[in-house]
Amino acid sequence: MDLKDYWAIAEADIEIQNPVTDRKLRLLDDYCDIRDGLRVLDVGCGKAWLMRQWADRHAIDGTGLELNPAFIDFARRRQPARGRIDYVEGPAEDFVPEPDSYDVVLCLGATFALGGFVQAVEWMVAATRPGGAVVVGDLTLKHRPAVNTHQHLPLDAIESLGVVQRHGADVSAMISASDADFERYASHHRHATLRWAREHPDHPDHDEVLDKSRAGWDYYLRTIRPMLGWTVLVGLKT
Question: Which residues, given as ranges, of the chain have pLDDT below 50?
Fold first, then answer.
C-alpha cells in the first residue's frame, strides 16, 4: 500500500503529529516571537496544527509543504481566523525557497523529506532571513545500546545542537518530549491502526496495515522506549 494511506490511517485521531504536547509547542510562540506580518514556512507540515494556531491569532503569511493529500485536505478545511496559509502538495525537495526569505522555518519530524537531519538544517538555515528562527524537531539518542546492534541511530541532542550551530544559527531554546509524550503518540498509532483493521476486515490493505502497525509498535517498544527521545531545537540565524 501507499505509505501516505497508511499514515492517514495511523494519524486519523491526532492533529499534533509529533510526540509532544500542545502546551510544549506553545512555547514556540515566544521562542519564535510570533507576531503579525511574519512569513512562515513549515516543511512536512502534515495537518499544520502549529501554523494554524499561529494564524488563528496572528496575521502571518504561511506556506505548508506536505506530501500527503489527506493531511492537506484536513488543514485546508480549517482556515485560520487571521493569517493566511497556502499549502504545496508534493516532495519538499522540489520546493525551492528564495534565500533569506522567511522569518520562521519549521520542520517537525520530517527531516527525512529533505534528505536527513544535517541536510534539512542546511536547507532551512539558507531559507531563513538573518535573525529569523529555524525550528527543527527530530528523534535524538538518549541512551546508547550496551552492545552494537548495527541499527542506524540518530544523533544525540548535543550533537544535533552542534549541527544547527555549525550551519549558522545560535540555538536559543530546546523542547524535549517526555517518555509519556512518546508513549501516548505511539499508542495513538497502534490503537488507530488496530481499530481500522477491525472495521475493514475485507479491505485489500488489511494485512499490510497490520504488518506495518506491528513493526511500528515493535520499534517503539524495543528501540524508541529504551534508547530514543524527540527534541525540538530553536536556532536564531546569525
Answer: none
